[in-house]
Amino acid sequence: MKLLDNMTVRFSWMLVLAAFSYLLIVVGTMGLYSNHFSRQAFGTLNQLNVAQTAALNRAYIDMLRARVEMDRAAELIRAPSFDRPGPVIEQAGMLLKSADAAF
Predict the structure, then answer these.
(1) What does UniProt give as the signal peptide span (predicted)?
(2) What is the pLDDT of residues 8-49, one digit of tens each?
(3) Which of 15, 55, 59, 68 could be disulfide-bonded to 103 (CB atoms 3.0-4.6 Å)?
(4) How many CB atoms lie within 10 A of CB 62?
(5) What does the alpha-carbon distance between residue 63 and residue 43 come to, in Å, rounded to a whole number?
(6) CA–CA distance from 22 to each of 3, 10, 29, 30, 32 (Å)?
(7) Torsion of CA 68, 102, 56, 65, to 10 degrees
C-alpha cells in the first residue's frame, strides 16, 4: 500500500494509459485472430457449398434429360415410327442412374 500512497498523479495516469494500451493491443490481436479463422471457416463452407451445388445441378440436368428421353419413348410407342423405343428407354434408365449417383 505504501507504493500506492507514494505514486504521483502523473505516474498513476501513465500506468492507467499503459493498461488501456495493453488491453487495446490484446483485444485487437484477438480480433485479427478470430477474423483469420472465420475467413478460413467461410472458405471451407464455400467449397463444400459449391461442390454440393454442382452435384445437385448435375443430378437435376440428368433428371431432365431422362424425362425428355422418357417423353420421346412414350411418343415412339404412341405414334407409329421406324425408331424403336427400347434404346431410348435404356438411355433414360442410364440417365436416371447417373442422376442417382450424382445425388
Answers:
(1) none
(2) 888 889 999 999 999 999 999 999 999 999 999 999 999 999
(3) 59
(4) 20
(5) 30
(6) 22, 18, 11, 12, 15
(7) -10
